[in-house]
Write a structure and sequence with these properties.
Length: 390
């Protein structure tokens, strides 16, 4: 409210800025998982990833590499729904009949070991194969045409997919070899969710830039951002001088109220040691999720920090899924809600858990008591209606 009274709105065009934008940017730079020099604000996670694409294109033009423009994302990745970020998203429902993806947006493998490992393949063999497939794709496309790779540390909307140990190290070795810019989409994992300030730190990722949204303002205001390293910034400044302007920006870029909320949110994360809080609760949360694997409906249970999911299956040993039309994931969500818990079902009967970062230990226990009741009820229904039949 204070910010609404002070400056409810001002734009940031023509070299203008304001204190709250500077404060939010400085706070973000101080905690970013790479050497960030500048922060470019926008309104949503989708816009952030659209900006990433535009900045990478602009940068490569500035460097005199007009052919280095393709972006590689991953199947089941989620990066938003605007034209460019929707193209990076690797989920059929976000493409179909929207004429996406646009040209030059490619999708490599999803690192979901439980679903996509070959019979007998170890995690190490699996990640080596995925890195090899990525390298083959880059060579096939011609490395001089591949500009960037984008990945969420943990895939969110695609099923809470936690990559096996060593995955990002192998992927990054390939990116480095072919001079491919690495964007970490921290829209879900950013700000303590995985037990570090950023998911990049949890998974040993060394991105060139991050996209942030959601928890940047604790989601209390639509504000998002991308970080830019000094080298990229300088190249873009030179290009903009040639052109006469940097022709990009939104009316609401770094909206003063959003920037004030973001700056305050980042201050609170630090003051309340939100990373420490998540870390202290992570073993309890992860333990609860992992124990759900014993339930007859659950084929796979996975969690990291305060983010987790269960994948429901008709047959545990063959990992056979339920008929999608049976809506088993949605049934668990509805049953959980009857017991006072809001959870979300994702495609493939995956039920995701993503509680508020300030949740207390007892509330985690309550949360999973409700999950157990919901699973038992749906299991009873599955048995009664013979829904396991192949
Ligand atoms: C990883 C990730 N990136 C980008 C987005 C898009 O953000 P928005 O919905 O704010 O456009 C989301 C949204 O859920 C997301 O989870």
């Amino acid at each position: 409210m204070e910010q609404f009274r002070q400056i409810p709105f001002t734009h940031t065009f023509g070299g203008k800025s304001h204190e709250r934008a500077a404060e939010a940017a400085e706070r973000l730079k101080a905690i970013a998982p790479h050497a960030a020099s500048k922060v470019l604000f926008c309104g949503s996670g989708s816009e952030a990833n659209d900006q990433q694409v535009k900045l990478v294109w602009y940068y490569n033009n500035a460097l005199g590499r007009p052919n280095k423009k393709k972006i590689i994302a991953r199947q089941r990745g989620y990066h938003g729904v605007t034209v460019a970020s929707g193209s990076l998203t690797g989920l059929p429902a976000n493409h179909r009949d929207f004429d996406l993806p646009i040209a030059g947006m490619l999708h490599t493998d999803c690192p979901h070991y439980y679903r996509y490992a070959e019979p007998g393949e170890t995690e190490d063999e699996f990640t080596t194969r995925l890195a090899k497939n990525l390298e083959d794709m880059i060579i096939r496309e011609d490395p001089d045409t591949v500009a960037a790779f984008i990945a969420e540390p943990i895939m969110g909307a695609g099923g809470v997919v936690i990559p096996p140990a060593g995955y990002f190290e192998k992927i990054q070795a390939v990116l480095k070899k072919y001079d491919i810019y690495f964007i970490a989409d921290e829209v879900i994992c950013g700000f303590a969710r995985t037990g570090n300030m950023f998911g990049s730190q949890t998974f040993n990722m060394k991105p060139d830039s991050i996209s942030v949204a959601k928890a940047l303002s604790s989601a209390y205001f639509p504000i998002a951002a991308v970080t830019v390293a000094e080298e990229m910034y300088q190249a873009m400044i030179d290009e903009s001088k040639k052109i006469g302007t940097f022709g990009h920006g939104f009316t609401y870029t770094a909206h003063p109220v959003g920037a004030a909320i973001a700056a305050k949110t980042l201050e609170i994360y630090e003051k309340r040691n939100i990373v420490g809080h998540v870390r202290s609760l992570a073993p309890r949360f992860e333990g609860h999720v992992e124990r759900l694997a014993e339930h007859p409906l659950v084929g796979h249970a996975r969690a990291k920090g305060l983010l987790g999911a269960i994948e429901l299956v008709a047959d545990k040993s063959s990992k056979r899924a339920f008929d999608a039309k049976a809506g088993i994931g949605a049934a668990v969500v509805a049953a959980a809600q009857r017991h006072g818990l809001i959870v979300r079902a994702l495609a493939g009967d995956i039920v995701a858990f993503c509680p508020p970062l300030i949740i207390a230990a007892e509330q985690i226990d309550d949360m999973f008591a409700a999950v157990h009741k919901a699973l038992d009820e749906v299991e009873a229904q599955v048995t009664k209606e013979g829904l396991r039949a192949a």
